[in-house]
Amino acid sequence: VLIRAEQPGDEAAVADLVTAAFGDRGEVAALVVALRPLARGGGASLVAEDAGGVVGHTMLTRSVLDAPPRLVDVLVLSPLAVRPDRQGEGIGGTLVRRTLEEATRLGSPAVFLEGSPVYYGRFGFVAGGEHGFRKPSLRIPDAGFQVALLPAYERWMTGTLVYAHEFWDADAVGLREPGG
Ligand SMILES: CC(C)(COP(=O)(O)OP(=O)(O)OC[C@H]1O[C@@H](n2cnc3c(N)ncnc32)[C@H](O)[C@@H]1OP(=O)(O)O)[C@@H](O)C(=O)NCCC(=O)NCCS
Predict the structure, then answer these.
(1) At what angle do helices 11-22 and 27-40 cross, to 10 degrees?
(2) Counting beta carbons within 10 angstroms of the beta carbon of residue 68, is it exposed (0 to 12), middle (13 to 18) or buried (19 or more)?
């Protein structure tokens, strides 16, 4: 598969793919729409494509780390989706690795995400708490709050991750108890 930047015209294919991957009612596709301007301004929106069309997608968007001396721009990897009939072929892994390369190129000190440590550990992600980071919500399990440190990282960069408001507007942070 080819990994490339999302282009105008890809939006509908990305929305279909994301909804198929998450099996939801379009909530994550709506998050993608909300995040798109942020991804274009200092982040990234990458698609994986083969002859059959768009089979994978992920985004990098700017959030901030509330470090003791000042706020630090960092990147959040979310969401990540691979078409259900193409999962398990390494497409998700290729997207994650390319995303880390892109974040490094952008000069970001760190990439944060919420996800399975088993899946993301293989790409160099560790629990954020190990480096003194605090999660943006108590509803994120400690092990699921993960970070990959990049070359621009410096040791004073500790503190709380503050998500861009788009994640809060979509109520896409952490896990919510049903019936709340
Ligand atoms: C998670 C996802 C992006 C992985 O993409 P993929 O192309 O299937 O991943 P890869 O082929 O690179 O890796 C497959 C491996 O990941 C594992 N894996 C997939 N989802 C996992 C999860 N939620 N937890 C733990 N491991 C997982 C598979 O078991 C497989 O393991 P193996 O390599 O030991 O056999 C894809 O399964 C997906 O779109 N899922 C639905 C949406 C989602 O949950 N996104 C992530 C949260 S934002």
Answers:
(1) 130
(2) exposed
Q: What is the pLDDT along the chain (180 residues), one digit of tens a residue?
A: 999 999 999 999 999 999 999 999 999 999 999 999 999 999 999 999 999 899 999 999 999 999 999 999 999 999 999 999 999 999 999 999 999 999 999 999 999 999 999 999 999 999 999 999 999 999 999 999 999 999 999 999 999 999 999 999 999 999 988 876
* Residue in 22, 119, 123, 175 to alter for ligand 1 test, most ligand atoms within 8 A of Cβ: 119
Is 87 touching ligand 1 by the criterion CB < 6 Å? yes
Report the Cα 29 to chain-centroid distance in Å.
14
Cα–Cα distance, 135 to 66 (Å, whole number): 11
Ligand 1 close to Cβ of residue 92 (< 6 A): yes
3-state secondary structure of 54: strand
Whole-model pTM: value is 0.96
Q: Which two tokens stand for residue 90?
A: 């390494």
Residues 6+ apart with CB under 8 A from 70: none
Phi and psi at 178, nearest 5°, equal -65, 150
Residue 74: CB atoms within 10 Å = 24
Residue 93 CA to ligand 1 centre (angstroms): 8
